[in-house]
Design goal:
homodimer, 279 residues, alpha/beta, N-(1-d-carboxylethyl)-l-norvaline Dehydrogenase, domain 2, 2 domains, elongated, 6-PGluconate_DH-like_C_sf (chains A, B), P5C_Rdtase_cat_N (chains A, B)
């Protein structure tokens, strides 16, 4: 029987939380969880039943795979604090850190970047999450790919430059829309209305682009070129300079895309994924 | 047996398309569809099997309910062109037009504003769409409410000022996020990557706020205060001034909300709706 790789998880935040679950579900040999914050380490350790520590010098030094799920800004400094065998496979899950951050620490390293937003409170099917893999050599990349395939059905091989762009695109596709949901909720709250009134709209807006391209799905006053409504909206926002700026620049963007579309300048990929219809 | 109200639908765009389906599904007596554009009138007429016209003077002058589903900017001028009985109930579906646009034309008028984004290509369950109703008198409002209840299970009574705000919030919750999906797709396309890679992320981002508040759901570099990533992103966008502006202002917004949250300044409604888990 093949000996299973001993896996050490470095980090106990949102990504680590979901990855730990996926590893266990896939029957992988997750041996230890490390976080600099004892509470976080304990929380994930207790949840998974895996041994945990908040002391860097207690991290098992004989692991086969070390997966770093920590913030980009602390990744380089945390790598330094962990003793690892020369021949261990070192991985991180960052969208923006180069693979070479591991260069001085092992001959086998790479990246598994999950294109998803993670919150501890939300359960996710990890097998549906696109995982972008990269490895420092061909064989290492193959090994990482095989490993990733145990966790997800959607594996993409991309390089560091593409991954950086993907991460930036993900900010536009996820973090910024979510912030706009916050803005919308705040506007409603100020008039005694509930955020719940927008939920079907938000859901449908996202659901639409599972099948259509966002260009085809675009609606609203800017798309229609309805200047009188846009002026009214700007007037309603005149006491909130920041929101007014957001409204103006995004509306201008929609109008420009619209103009390009009409002259046939713009199109994006037609691939769609199958989504069940909820309503 | 009670005589059914004769309903005339004015408009054949996205909203009219879905509303016509909902009326027929509810067993309502939709008699005629009018659009200034013959092709649109014919398309919806053929789809529903309802008689249609593109001539304002051919609109039946003996309807009981006239529902105006037309762009805000043409609504006032289109109302003028239609002959209608003094005692007809006049409704529009606009988020921003005041109810009083009908004042000179009937004693019974109001609004049914559906809080949703409509595209002809997408099927929707109209019963799940929040309908915001308003009427010019108490009894008229009751009549409109009863009528709306045949179409949807989610009826809200709100006034014109609230409706305007709701419409503005809907632009932030729907039109702008969809535009950001476009931006994300364009960024990927430039690097030979497919928009499809972002679909699970977009879907989960929306799905999260079906249960969580957007404040709780927020993730990303701005939320974490990760300045090095944000600076890298800004650098990647340095040749596209508009995107750079969008990135900067939305990131600033997230950081500010984050600061407020930490001092306990901000919260929005905790109501959630039940959503099936897809993954």
């Amino acid at each position: 029987m093949e000996q299973q790789d001993k896996i050490i998880l470095i980090g106990a935040g949102n990504v680590a939380h979901h990855l730990a679950g996926a590893l266990l579900k896939a029957g992988e040999n997750l041996c230890q969880i490390y976080s600099r914050t004892l509470d976080s380490a304990r929380q994930l350790g207790m949840k998974t039943g895996i041994s945990y520590t908040a002391e860097a010098n207690e991290v098992y030094p004989d692991g086969d795979i070390y997966i770093f799920c920590v913030s980009d800004d602390v990744l380089p400094s945390i790598i330094k604090t962990i003793r690892m065998p020369d021949n261990a496979l070192l991985l991180h899950t960052s969208g923006s850190q180069p693979m070479d951050v591991f260069k001085s620490y092992s001959k086998h390293y790479g990246v598994i970047y999950p294109v998803q937003t993670f919150s501890k409170k939300r359960e996710l099917d990890f097998r549906e999450i696109p995982l972008c893999v990269e490895g420092n050599t061909g064989p290492v990349k193959e090994r990482i790919k095989k490993f990733a395939e145990k966790l997800s059905g959607k594996i993409y091989e991309i390089d560091s430059a593409q991954r950086k762009e993907l991460h930036l695109a993900a900010v536009f596709a996820c973090n910024f829309p979510n912030y706009l949901y916050q803005v919308a909720g705040k506007l409603l709250e100020d008039k005694g209305l509930s955020f719940a009134m927008l939920r079907p709209l938000i859901f449908e807006t996202a659901h639409k682009v599972m099948l259509l391209n966002p260009e085809e799905a675009q609606t609203g006053p800017a798309k229609r070129g309805d200047e009188s409504i846009m002026n009214m909206h700007k007037n309603m926002l005149k006491n909130d300079k920041d929101l007014l700026k957001i409204y103006t620049i995004l509306s201008e963007g929609i109008k420009e895309t619209q103009d390009k579309e009409e002259t046939g300048d713009q199109k994006i990929s037609q691939d769609t994924i199958d989504m069940p219809t909820l309503w």
